[in-house]
Amino acid sequence: MNVVVNPSLLRPSHQQSTGRDVTAVPSTALLNAYSTRNLGDAAIMASIAAMLPERCAQVALHSESQIDVPGIALTDVVHSARRFVSVGGDIFNNSRPRLITRSYLRNIQQLRAHASRTIVFGQTIPSSCGWLGLPMLTAALRRVRAVVVRDSESHDLLKRSGVDADLSFDAAFSLAPTQSGIAAAVAHFAGRGLDPARTVLLSIRSFDSIYRQDPDLFLARMARLADLLIARGHQVAVLIQSDVNTNDSDAVIAQALHCRVPAVRILDLFEPVGTHDRVATLIGALAIANIVVAVRYHGAVLRLVGGRQPYNLYYSRKGRELQKRLGLTGCALDDFCPEDAIPEIEATADRGFDPSPVSENVRGAFDRAYARIA
User: Fold this and answer.
1) DSSP code of 75?
2) Is 207 in a helix, a strand, or coil?
3) Which of 83, 128, 347, 357 is such that its CA lies 20 to 30 A from the CA of 102?
4) Which of 207, 352, 245, 339 is nearest to 290 (CA)?
5) Backbone torsions φ then ψ of 294, nearest 5 degrees
6) Which of 153-157, 208-212, 260-264, 346-350 has the lowest average pLDDT?
């Protein structure tokens, strides 16, 4: 089984620990966290925890099925935190743009409650904020100590709204592959009869009222892509990267794709193989696969963290921005034609990426922001 990973990118496994290794109550808490069972969000949490002086943070999540995340102490209620970091991402999506959802109000209230001790890092301001939601959000952001966004459109929007925001990248760019994560990924591939040197990983997702796509058309395109790749001698595996609930689970789409194309394997990273660090396993899987077609945003980000380029099949502003700023190959999901894209998809197998400048940018931006509440 051939595995190609740039050794200079590897971080020794002992440098990371699981959430259960956090014995003392950390003094910093993460706000507006979504779920550890979405591994993109888990990667954000892990990266922020690793950049903190204590290398750990507490997070209040109420679901009983959360998984361990490096440096994260899971709790029902935040205990005596002295500093707060709002986790960024697309947390301010509002599924009812002409009204305000309760979750949207709850996220804004979290910022207001601790504004003088809070920074916001790696944020995107989604278009779904709407005409009612945006003024509420910008008013809250003007009160916190620092705001760092991950895309230029959000940066420009906040600047026009009087928010003193800085521009960086997604927090997960500060991560790196680990030896244990690579080993776990190799074990996952072997368990499915996959050779990494021949494997195309499809990072898929379901869609909803916020990210609107025709689910039948999406599935048909992915099935056609899989058929074409298999006919050209590739092995194809679909990646289960999120398993939060019925509205956010890759498993349904993966199973439907497998039913249409039985040769497609399912790579479920929530199965207990090797390390308990599922984020490290995801980075490892994306690093060792020959090709990655990334629909999920963090499928693209963590492929880049592993030192290789994805084919970026984006569905929203954050993916489009990532492609533009980093010069990636790909297209909007609405414009995707599998037959036309095959040559470009195959060409990404040989395209490396140096994540160091982006990682340094993220770490520097975080350190400057955190200094405002340290």
Assistant:
1) E
2) coil
3) 83
4) 352
5) -105, 105
6) 208-212
Q: Name which of 71, 18, 14, 27 is nearest 48 in CA terms.
A: 71
Instruction: Tell me the one-letter amino acid at 240.
Output: I
3-state secondary structure of 317: helix
Kind and range of the H or E element at 50?
Answer: helix 39-51
Looking at the predicted structure, is the pLDDT value of residue 69 above 80?
yes
**Cross-strand bridge partners of residue 94:** none
Residue pair 345/295 in contact (Cβ under 8 Å)? The answer is no
Angle between helices 215-231 and 250-260 (to 10 degrees): 50
- Report the range of poorest mean pLDDT among 116-130, 229-243, 348-362: 116-130
Six token digits for residue 274: 């090797």
CA distance 61 to 77: 8
Place of tokens 């959802």: 101
CA 228 – CA 350 distance, rounded (Å): 19
Q: State the distance between the two ends of the chain, measured CA to CA, in whole angstroms.
A: 47
Query: Is residue 12 pLDDT above 90, yes or no?
Result: no
Rounded distance between C-alpha atoms, residue 301 and residue 39, angstroms:
12
Lowest mean pLDDT of 8-12, 143-147, 233-237, 305-309, name the range: 8-12
DSSP for residue 67: -
Residues 6+ apart with CB under 8 A from 247: 206, 208
**Dihedral of the CA atoms 102, 155, 302, 316 (nearest 10)?**
60
Are 111 and 146 in contact by the 8 Å Cβ rule? The answer is no
Tell me: pLDDT of 220 over 70: yes
Residue 81 reports pLDDT greater than 70: yes
User: Which 3 state secondary structure label does DSSP give 40?
Assistant: helix
Q: Residue 99: is its pLDDT beyond 90?
A: no
Rounded to whole angstroms, how far apart are CA atoms 236 and 203? 11
- Does the predicted TM-score (pTM) go above 0.90? yes
Q: Could you give the 3-state DSSP secondary structure of residue 334? A: helix
For residue 272, give Cα distances in angstroms to 84, 177, 366: 32, 19, 32
Which sign, positive or negative, has the C-alpha torsion 10, 312, 168, 350?
Answer: positive
| 193 Rama class: left (phi>0) / alpha (psi -120 to 50) / beta | left
